[in-house]
């Protein structure tokens, strides 16, 4: 008898995300890999006495979803060990939750969590708000992240432990001072918050077991949304070790590509840069690939740290000709990308403004001319010059897009507050796809509240908030089709992170990673996509989540 399948999957709708064979009636799995796809009659010939049959009936099977940009361990840590705050809360609601948390903790314990909405930060930059946080915490140190995860709000005790005073201000980032008495308010933008992170970590931080638990929990949550592959957009040695530990124990139920931090104005971890990159290979396992670096080339628009080609609208603090700045010059970025290419690594480059995106493309042009073809992703890329959109395809640069953070809502409102009408023209996804660029979908979870890929699919199609929390649509001319959106969050994302030969489509030879949905989500009304339940998630032919 010939090859016999371990598993045969049949159903009325099986989408493969493979252009050669987009719909099939069945597929067979052996040793965790897709053995064959095709008609029910053909695939059934691979059935043996021990073959498991999975008939999903009227449900639908898609390839496992692929998330090109998240921070799984940060999300898992928040879920297990920190104070989880929906970014929709008011100040009074945040303080009440801090007070409730404090009541359960020892007198000197840190209260850490998030997220505080970006739109709330300006109203917190005063002594009165800091003292209210002091009161709610009962004197315990507090460090709350804001929803972009670039900025922090901390209380007096946290400032004290970090050594931040009126006469000792962090040299980087922005320490917001009270306009009346000149004291630090506890609102710390970008790198100004790192001394507080370091003070927290010096107090103990997480144990290796807790880091492993955080990664395991992050992957569990991703699996529950049908996600079987992801790229973590900024890892530490602790996260690398956690992922490798899980995989060696057979407990990592996803393909993971890690992005090793080259520079860091947010996380406050050590080591970064070359010392971290040199250690990456220690943590390579069957399903964990430390194959990328992460470069922060700018910050975020609400903090005026994103770099733009045209100046920000004039304000008192920055004047009329402020463009923001990149963290590296052309030569510095070129040097880093050449160095990582020599190690066989790709680069995920954070670009929140069109100025930083142009710098990446200019450097990519030089590199491609030098014969360096290392993978490069522009992360976020919500603002791109019309002249630069065709360059992504021409220079083989991927667009890592996060539609979760541009739905009409808190973050788009924060962008509008600082950018004006320019904010209405973000995420030019139709133009990118029409130009031939590789567009890959990511959630940026937990910057987004949820990693639910179905939210991303719906938002790409409708350009509206899939959960109905905010009215309106954002630049509807840039909508893409539902079929294109599915590719963005499957084969495109897998290809962008270097895993296109392993996963991303139901193709013979690839890992048998798939999700079973209650119905064919993308075939019905776009407004109903997000309401489609996930029935089960399968990784390498094994069920890793069941509703």
From TrEMBL:
InterPro entries, per the entry: Amidohydro_3, Metal-dep_hydrolase_composite, Metal_Hydrolase, YtcJ-like
Record's keyword annotation contains Hydrolase: yes
Signal peptide: none
SUPFAM superfamilies referenced in this protein's UniProt entry, alphabetically: Composite domain of metallo-dependent hydrolases, Metallo-dependent hydrolases
Leading EC class: hydrolase
Molecular function via GO: hydrolase activity, acting on carbon-nitrogen (but not peptide) bonds
UniProtKB keywords: Hydrolase
Origin superkingdom: Bacteria
Residue span, Amidohydrolase domain: 55-545
Keyword hit for Hydrolase: yes
EC number(s) recorded for this UniProt protein: 3.5.-.-
Protein's UniProt name: Amidohydrolase
